[in-house]
Amino acid sequence: MKPKSKRRFRWRLWLAVLIALLIVGYFVVRALTKEEPLPATTEIRRGEIESSVLATGTLRPKNLVAIGAQATGRILSLKVKPGQQIKAGEVVALIDSTNQQNELNKAQASLRQNEATRAQNLA
Question: From which residue to which does the signal peptide run (predicted)?
Fold first, then answer.
């Protein structure tokens, strides 16, 4: 090889190495200074927080209390709301007493008839 062509070869080799180093350096710097994307933002405003859960299951009471009425009949009106606390003796519901009133009227009529029959037999 001639000395002039040897020098050109070295010069081109150094130039190729320099270009390769510049390219590698560019990508290294770019990777190190890569900015993270900003998180999504929105305007804040005052409002109600709503929380709901949709699930299936079985509810069991903490305490079980038996409630009953001394009379039977159709309920005319409820005097309490679900979950409301009540005290002993407090009226919870009004029950239709038409059947009981009719039975009482029959019993009183039967009593009067029996008393009249007895008075007739004693006379």
Answer: none
